């Protein structure tokens, strides 16, 4: 029950300039429709901070989109120009502002992850072990165990707590 979306931005004009084939409204509608059909579904998304011409107001649209789509897992990328692309010929956002916006989005990502983790405390999750002490739940949550388990196996683990990085299960 995890779906990763390549949203990039929450502003329609920026999406158009990126040549994306979706609007913010389509993304919000899709997330709402999927959540209604499967309430346990979690969303991840790629977001770019500081795409050329992005104003403060446009950036706020991206922040709002995170809540409107109920996104738990954010993958943040500061814009970096590539020579000879259409974006390279657009007015650029200064590097300090790009870094500041990426930081804001990373802080939001951490908040969203903590909110998600708090909802999972004391729940039993199906976890695929990726190494002796670390696995992933079906919703993309990383989980650590107190004792080693067999890599590649799926276990039902009860979440006892969480840290800034992962859920914690005792087994």
Annotation keywords:
171 residues, alpha/beta, 5-stranded mixed beta barrel, 3-stranded parallel beta sheet, 4 helices, elongated
Overview of the structural elements:
The structure is a single chain. By secondary structure, the chain is of the alpha/beta class. The protein is about 35% helix and about 30% strand. The chain is built from four helices and eight strands. The strands form two sheets. A five-stranded mixed beta barrel has the order 4-5-6-8-7. Strands 1-2-3 form a three-stranded parallel beta sheet. The longest helix is centred in the middle third of the chain and has 26 residues, at about 95-120. The two termini are about 25 Å apart.
The rough form would be described as elongated
If strands are numbered along the chain, what order do they take across the biggest sheet? Answer: 4-5-6-8-7
The biggest beta sheet is recorded as: 5 strands, mixed, barrel
Uncertain runs: none
Briefly summarize what is shown.
This protein has four helices and eight strands.
Q: In terms of topology, how is this protein built?
A:
Elements: E1 2-8, H1 12-17, H2 24-37, E2 42-49, H3 56-68, E3 71-78, H4 95-120, E4 124-131, E5 134-137, E6 142-145, E7 154-162, E8 167-169
Parallel strand pairs: 1-2, 2-3, 6-8
Antiparallel strand pairs: 4-5, 4-7, 5-6, 7-8
